[in-house]
Amino acid sequence: MFNLLLVILMIPLLIFIFFLFIKFKSLMSKEKMSPFECGFDPFSFSRVPFSLKFFFIGIIFLIFDVEIIIILPYPIFLINKNISLFVSFFVINFIILGGLIFEWKLGMIDWLK
């Protein structure tokens, strides 16, 4: 039984290593490592300036989205009237509120400064 499990696990691993080796060879070819030049002068810079405000808003959204996912099951857990769940619910809410106040004080939430 153990030998069968070992074979079942080794076959995908060997296939993965084989394809990784083939892919690595194709990524390191001379044509792919040389820069592309078409002969035209660029009309603008290749890197466009990016506002960090969009990045901060996206990070804040992701953080609060995950925190909301953590909070959503708590009403179901509070049906049991367990005091430890009740305390943990308020601790998580105070951590979220503290993060919101901290971001507000840093000015990360203000769109126009």
Share of helix among residues?
55-70%
CA-atom Rg in angstroms: 26 Å
Figure out the total of helices: 5
Model regions low in confidence, pLDDT < 50 over at least 5 residues: none
Transmembrane segments: 6-24, 54-77, 83-104
Subcellular location: Membrane; Mitochondrion membrane
Pfam families: Oxidored_q4 (PF00507)
Main location: membrane
What does it look like?
By secondary structure, the protein is mostly helical. The chain has 5 helices and no strands. The longest helix has 26 residues, at 2-27. The mean pLDDT is 77. It is found in: Membrane; Mitochondrion membrane. Its main location: membrane. It is an enzyme of class 7 (translocase).
List its traits.
113 residues; mainly alpha; 2 domains; flat; 5 helices
SSE order and pairing:
Blueprint: H1 2-27, H2 30-33, H3 52-71, H4 74-77, H5 83-106
Quick description:
This protein is an all-alpha fold and 113 residues long. It has helices spanning 2-27, 30-33, 52-71, 74-77, 83-106.
